[in-house]
Structures are given as C-alpha cells and as structure tokens.
Amino acid sequence: MIPIEIHMFPCLNDNYGFLVHDQESGFTAAVDTPEAETILAELSKKNWNLTHIFNTHHHADHAGGNIAIKEATECLIIGPRADASRIPGIDKLVGDGDEFLLGGHPVRIFDTPGHTRGHIIYYLPEDGVAFVGDTLFAMGCGRLFEGTPAQMWNSLQKLTQLPDDTEIYCAHEYTQANARFALSVEPGNQALIDRAREVDSLRARNEPTVPTTLGLEKATNPFLRPMSLEISTNVGLGGSGTEEVDLVEVFARTRALKDSF
Ligand code: ZN
Ligand code: FE
Fold it and tell me: 254 in a domain, yes or no?
C-alpha cells in the first residue's frame, strides 16, 4: 500500500487545514473546514477531487466551511454522532470504535469529549497518523468548553495508548505559547527545555511545529504528565511525597492555570 499523502497548510489566524489523499483510489478527505476558499484552492493546486470531510467537532473554525465545500465538491461529510445536530451538512455519523476505509486506508474513530461534548479524532493505524482536532496540541490540550477535567483526561488517556511514533496532527499552531506555559510548571524538564528552543527557532523561520509525535508529547506535554512530581508540586499538590496524588486533580489544576496564563 502506498502511504497516505498529507498536505497541510495554514488557515485563518492559527488553524491548519489538512488534505489526506489516497493515491490508488484518488479519494481525498479534508480534515475539518476552517476556510472553504483556501481548502478549495489547495485542492485545485494539488489537482485532487475532494470525496470526504472528516469533522472533529462543531466549532466554526472546524466546520464553518462544510456547506460551501460540499456544494462545490459534492463530498460526503463524516462527523461525530454525539454532536450530529451541530455539524452542518453531516451525512455519516460515527463514534467510538467505528472503523471505515479511505480508499485502502483504515480510519478508526475515538470519542474524545472535553473540548466539546462530541469531539472525535481520526486515527489511521496503518499509516501511523492521528488527526486530533482540538483535543491534543503540541505541549498543550484543548480548553474545556463542554466537558469536565475527568472527561478530558480520559480522552487523552485513549490517545496515549497509541504507539509512541504516531504522528499527531493538531488543528492549531499554538506551540510557542504552550511551551512557555509548560516551562512554567515543569522548568526542570530537560526534554522540554530543548524542545522549546527548537520550537522558537522553527517559528522564527515561520515554519510549522505540527505534526508532533505521541512520544514527544509524553515527554514534554504537561497535560500528559500529571504524574510528574515537579508539575504536581508547582500546581499546588503532592509536594510532600507521602500521599498519592490524584492525576485528574493535577490535570484539572494545570488546565485551570493555563486558562489564566
Ligand atoms: Zn475548537
Ligand atoms: Fe479550533
């Protein structure tokens, strides 16, 4: 099987658009629709015909271009069953554990509520890539607009079960700001210090920091690291080493601190 081709480009202020193309079948999916005109222009640059939209969640910077793109391409819109009423033009409803094919490439769905109640991610196990929307970011995670810390922590736990070399395509370029926050709660993490420096030099050249890998996130992302004593201490929990720290509580406090950082 020829590996899936992924074409990534900036949209709006800090979103990324993604086109996922299977050479053999010609099937092409847009992961979310931040900006209809940009996505249609990138499709014609590539000379690809859009067959699918994969929506991660209902926010306008993810589903706002659905109708215009569907009218232009007659593509099929796939989105979260749990949020079908808020996904414009949705045709096919999917949820946790569902699997389907994009050409020859299996695509598996995970429900990841927290940022929104119906957020889903798209994982391509044979290609080792995951499109995670606003659930996980490089050194960050989505804000909890419609979910509890426990729900989001559970959603992130599903992601951490994937192989460490999984390429994580997040929907925003938030990395530099995320790194500054991460360093504030875990200043002694050498992997984080090194990565923050790399990110600064990438951004100075206006280069993307996406995709990341799951392994790198496990080493540097504070929202995947509530078991770090340095983090639990810095968020005001578990400094004594005598009591067992509640990971959800550490996660919740870290998320709350980031909200006002
Ligand atoms: Zn969002
Ligand atoms: Fe977003």
Answer: no
Copy the structure tokens of residue 80: 């979260």
CATH number at residue 40: 3.60.15.10
Query: How many domains does the chain fold into?
Result: 1
Q: Is 32 labeled as catalytic in the residue annotation? A: no
pTM: 0.97
CA of 55 to the centre of ligand 1 (A): 11
Domain membership flag for residue 31: yes
Between the CA of 34 and the centroid of ligand 1 the distance, in Å, is: 10
Interval 219-259: pLDDT, tens: 999 999 999 999 999 999 976 555 678 999 999 999 999 99
Q: Is residue 21 annotated as a catalytic residue, yes or no?
A: no
**Could you confirm whether 22 is annotated as catalytic?**
no
CA angle 170, 260, 16 (to 5 degrees): 20
3-state secondary structure of 111: strand
pLDDT in tens, 152-183: 999 999 999 999 999 999 999 999 999 999 99
Q: Which two tokens stand for residue 113?
A: 């509520």
58 classed as catalytic: no
Catalytic residue among 21, 62, 105, 119: 62
Which residue is it, tokens 């951004």? 203
